[in-house]
Records
---
Amino acid sequence: MVILADLLQRQAVWRGGAAPVTAAIPAAPVIPTGYAGLDAELPGGGWPVGGLAEVLCHTEGIGELQIVLPALAALTGAGHRVAWLAPPHLPYAPALRAAGVRLNLLTVIRAPGRRDALWAAEQALRAGSFHALLLWLPRAGYPELRRLAVAAQAGPGFALAFRPPEAACESSPAVLRLMLEPNEGRLAVSILKRRGAPIEAPLPIAIDRPAFERPPRAVGRTPFPAIPAPGVVARACAA
């Protein structure tokens, strides 16, 4: 018979008002974000392995990818593959290389429609081929997000969905939800949802931006060429 202490230790019971995971309870595996101040506020100290996280942005191009680039650089530096699914624009290879991301281990997956993107994301997560999957989701319902969250549980890394700010008012199965806003050259990171007690004030995060980019973006403004035929096309990002 499973007792309550065992359930709490495995984090099978959500304790919304409880303190974050401490050293007394084995923390779930994470991948550090690379920002000490943010890691200090996240359960376990990073992006949740085997979990779905969300980043909500008020404006595109405020440096939202900088929040995840240190983790991608660390993962690819260790020889692990990462994937971007349905990014809004062509990835900007010089910025990614400058951030330490090994481009030969980055796969960009294109999808002609929303349903294709959701299907491709679920398949990629269930395959366990990537240690990080970044997904751009302008629209998604709770059942669709739930399927992604369940699929992410079996993987070796984390899944991160970029969503619009309106999604903050919607229910989500994500174990971590962040809201990003620009703040005097920094990012103000509000933690909307995490395991443990809520955080009251946004965290100011100083992001590292390459000097040669004006404005600095890891995703540029060049649109993808049209997909010639129905289906999902995957390719490795060329150096």
Note: Residues 111 and 232 are 5 Å apart (CA to CA).
---
Amino acid sequence: MKKKKILIVDDDQSIREILCTQLGRLGFQTAAAADGKEAVELFKAGQPNLILMDMMMPVMDGLAACQQIRALEKKGARVPILFLTARDTRHDQISSALCGGDEFITKPISLQELRERVEAALAHAKHKPDP
């Protein structure tokens, strides 16, 4: 069975490395981007099965990147985007949903919760009916 590919988008290199390592140990293939613009380019190059996206990044923030990715998706092919951020206001949660985000997760997160959220999002994406 082919490994699921997760795109990790965060401007903090140590967070990218930790997430890549931990998700790799869980059996996922990972790719990483340091900002939203790079994430959009990586999405175009090879569609991941799931995206973990920070909100606050230089060049292009996570909200703008999410909107661009949603605009690039083909009909019936929606990639789960989970916002993983230190921000925790109601406004941030609403903004992430309005731009097309599927989940809003506040940092820090335990490895167990990360695995559960990623697996649930992937399972839900697999069983979504086509529009």
Note: Residues 76 and 130 are 5 Å apart (CA to CA).
---
Amino acid sequence: MKQKKLISLIGMMVLALLPICLYAHGVDENTQSFLVANKGSNFVPFLYIGAKHMVTGYDHLLFLVGVIFFLYRTREVITYVSFFTIGHSTTLLLGVLADFSINSYLIDAIIAMSIIYKGFDNLGGFKQFFGKQPNTKAAVLIFGLFHGFGLASKLQELSLGKDGLITNLIGFNVGVEIGQFLALAIVLFIIGRWRQHSSFMRFSTLTNTLLMIGGIVLMGFQLTGYFLN
């Protein structure tokens, strides 16, 4: 009975906070003004913008939470995060430099799908319903590619100048990695402490179910935006 009440409470909190997160995600007005007016190479400002974007990029972070949720060894964490990093770094640079654009609503819907996938995977859904486990490293790499296109789409919308573009993109990408490292350090600390308590395994199903619910709501929001716009 208590667990049902807790599930309902957390579910309502997630649904209440999601609209705030949805509209908070992206590039704020001050950053937009800077990016549009920027001329030439500005490595450090772009590094800061990349770090800030990743720290506030709840969709990227939710996916990574799902990825590392059941990883207990440092080597495994580094391996999976590296696959994700290779994926999103490649398509971030490729997307902007080659001007390869994907509708931002559709790419964000796929990113939301990656969150649903990881929650479902953590719950053992593939083995239970399909009798087969996908290659998890390949899945993280592939979804990393889509996450990179999501980052690229945010920059493409601002029509960055060509002068100093490569330097600025590298700065942005390095900033993304710094932001990812800082966010993951906090998440790993929290999960590491939580694992020391019996409640971790008891509520792991609830946590990953909520991860899926969050992904479903995010995907619904993005698809609605696509069809309305």
Note: The two ends are 43 Å apart (CA to CA).
